[in-house]
C-alpha cells in the first residue's frame, strides 16, 4: 500500500464512513487542529524521561484519548460508535482537582512559562482551546458531533493549565503573574 493516494490533489480528504470533504471544511479544521494538539503533546512527552517520570505514562494515555477525540470529529453522523465517553471526562476532572489542590494558590492570571515542560504544557492548553473553537464552529454549522468530545476538549485545556502549574511547583519554579490582572480564581461558583 502506498502512503500517497492522490485523493487530496484536488483539495479533498476522506472521512470516516467513506464520505469526502474539502480540506478546509469545518469538520477537517476541527480534527486537524486536534492532530496539531496531539503533536504538541508528543513534543512534551518527548522531553520527559520515560523511566523516571509517571507523567510520561499519563500523557501518553492522554494522547490516546486525543487521537480518539480527533477520530470522533472525523466521523460524520456517528457512522461508527464514538470513542470519547463520560468516564474520560471524569478522569480529567479528578486529575484537575488533584493538580489544582497540589499547586500553590493563585488569585491572578499567570504568564505561560517556567520550566520547559510547563511551557510546553501551556502550548498544549492553547492548542486545545484552538481545537475547541474549531469544534464549536463545526457545531454551529449544524454538523453532527459527539458532544462528549466537545466536553473532553473543554476539560482538557483546564487539565493542561493545572498540570503546567503543578510541574512548575514540583520544580520549585515560581509563577510569573500578569501585572494588570484583576483577582480571579477565587470567585464562588454559580449554582
Automatic annotation (TrEMBL):
EC number(s) recorded for this UniProt protein: 2.5.1.17
Catalyzed reactions: 2 cob(II)alamin + reduced [electron-transfer flavoprotein] + 2 ATP = 2 adenosylcob(III)alamin + 2 triphosphate + oxidized [electron-transfer flavoprotein] + 3 H(+); 2 cob(II)yrinate a,c diamide + reduced [electron-transfer flavoprotein] + 2 ATP = 2 adenosylcob(III)yrinate a,c-diamide + 2 triphosphate + oxidized [electron-transfer flavoprotein] + 3 H(+)
Record flagged with keyword Chloroplast: no
Span of domain Cobalamin adenosyltransferase-like: 3-167
Keywords: ATP-binding, Cobalamin biosynthesis, Nucleotide-binding, Transferase
Pfam families documented for this protein: Cob_adeno_trans
Single GO MF descriptor: corrinoid adenosyltransferase activity
Similarity annotation: Belongs to the Cob(I)alamin adenosyltransferase family.
Name used for this protein in its record: Corrinoid adenosyltransferase
Protein source organism: Enterococcus hulanensis
